[in-house]
Structures are given as structure tokens and as C-alpha cells.
Design a protein that fits this description.
Blueprint: H1 3-22, H2 29-53, H3 57-63, H4 71-103, H5 110-135, H6 142-157, H7 164-181, H8 186-210
């Protein structure tokens, strides 16, 4: 290795040390892939449930604002979302912990605390806002608004983790805004945002940061 190559390697090492000290870089792309898969499965289950229980189906209910929605449907939807969330968090912790151990990093540090705080504030606000929408019968706006606030949460927390999270957040925001315009197709945009985009970005992150290490 000549002097120029040594200098470049030293610069790479310095850059890596700075990233490790200021960002949470142990986030695994596989956690995004599995979160997307669970989201698509959960959305399919919810959609089939609504269309078998309602003669009019999801689309006509969502397009009629405000809409009368039975508490049974809301309960099923909340339980369905809770299962998706728990599975996504569980697999996310597993894959991220595995990556951190492989890289010799600590998974719980100051950066993780900053990340969780900046992520949780928009998510909590979005969850409360969606409950307000439901109380007014604005059923068709709930799905796109979850995308909108989720995107804001990712964008808000992106400075503490990988750059791809920022672009994922922006993509979710755009999808949420478009979904708010095309009322009745919120579930379609929700599947794209929480399902397809998670899989695409997760796979990209995996092949960029993890696959070459195996």
C-alpha cells in the first residue's frame, strides 16, 4: 500500500469514527424489508375483512365523508395494526441487534436516545390526530395521514441515522399528501408507503451496507 492509499484509508477510518459517534448506523435494512412484508399482509387481511363485513366495501365507505363505521371494524383495524407494529418492532430489534454485534457496536447509546425522541414526537401527534379524525367520521383521511406523520417522524429523526431514512421520510410525506387528495384510495397509498417503500429502501440499505460484509 503506497502513501496515497494509506492517506485515503485513514480518511475513511476518520469518517467512520465520526459517523459512529454522531449517528445510529446499526439500523438493519432487513428490518425494513420485513416491516414492509408485514404491512402488506396486514393491509390485505384488513381489506378482506372490511369487504366481507360491509356490503359497500372499503372504497365507498372511505369516499363518503363523514362515514359511519362500526366499533367492531375499528377494533379489528386497531388490533391488526398492533400486530403489524409488534412484529415489525420485534424483527427490527432482532436484525438491528445482530448487525450491531457483527459490527462491534453498542446498540443502545446517546444517538439511539436522540433518534427515538425525534421519531416519537411526530408519531404521537399523528396518532392523536388520527383518533380525532376517526371521532369525526373522517375515515378516508386516516390512512394517508398516518403516512404523512410517519414521513415527518422519519425526516425529523433522519439526522441521527442513515441518509436513506431522510429520503424514505420525504417519499412517505408525498404519498400521504397525494392520498389526502384522492380520498378512497388511502389504503392503496398506505400499502405503497408502509409496504412497498419499506421493502425497496430496506433492500437497498441491506445490499449497500450489509450484504458485502457476509
Amino acid at each position: 500500500m503506497n502513501e496515497k492509499e494509506q492517506s485515503l484509508q485513514q480518511l475513511r477510518d476518520i469518517k467512520m469514527m465520526m459517523e459512529r459517534s454522531s449517528r445510529f448506523i446499526s439500523l438493519s435494512g432487513l428490518s425494513g424489508v420485513f416491516a414492509g412484508i408485514f404491512a402488506l399482509i396486514g393491509a390485505a387481511v384488513f381489506y378482506m375483512y372490511l369487504n366481507t363485513q360491509m356490503a359497500s366495501g372499503y372504497l365507498s365507505i372511505a369516499e363518503s365523508l363523514p362515514a359511519e363505521v362500526s366499533i367492531d371494524y375499528l377494533t379489528f383495524g386497531i388490533l391488526d395494526a398492533a400486530v403489524i407494529l409488534l412484529l415489525s418492532i420485534g424483527f427490527g430489534i432482532y436484525f438491528t441487534t445482530r448487525k450491531a454485534k457483527r459490527d462491534g457496536l453498542t446498540i443502545w447509546d446517546r444517538n439511539v436516545g436522540h433518534l427515538l425522541i425525534h421519531l416519537s414526537i411526530p408519531l404521537i401527534a399523528g396518532g392523536l390526530f388520527c383518533l380525532i379524525l376517526l371521532s369525526y367520521g373522517l375515515f378516508g383521511l386516516v390512512a394517508p395521514c398516518t403516512l404523512l406523520f410517519y414521513g415527518l417522524a422519519l425526516l425529523n429523526a433522519s439526522k441521527y441515522t442513515l441518509d436513506e431514512i431522510k429520503w424514505l421520510g420525504i417519499s412517505e410525506i408525498v404519498l400521504g399528501l397525494v392520498g389526502c387528495i384522492y380520498i378512497g384510495y388511502g389504503m392503496t397509498f398506505w400499502c405503497i408507503g408502509f409496504g412497498v417503500l419499506h421493502i425497496v429502501y430496506g433492500a437497498f440499505m441491506y445490499f449497500r451496507y450489509e450484504h458485502k460484509q457476509h
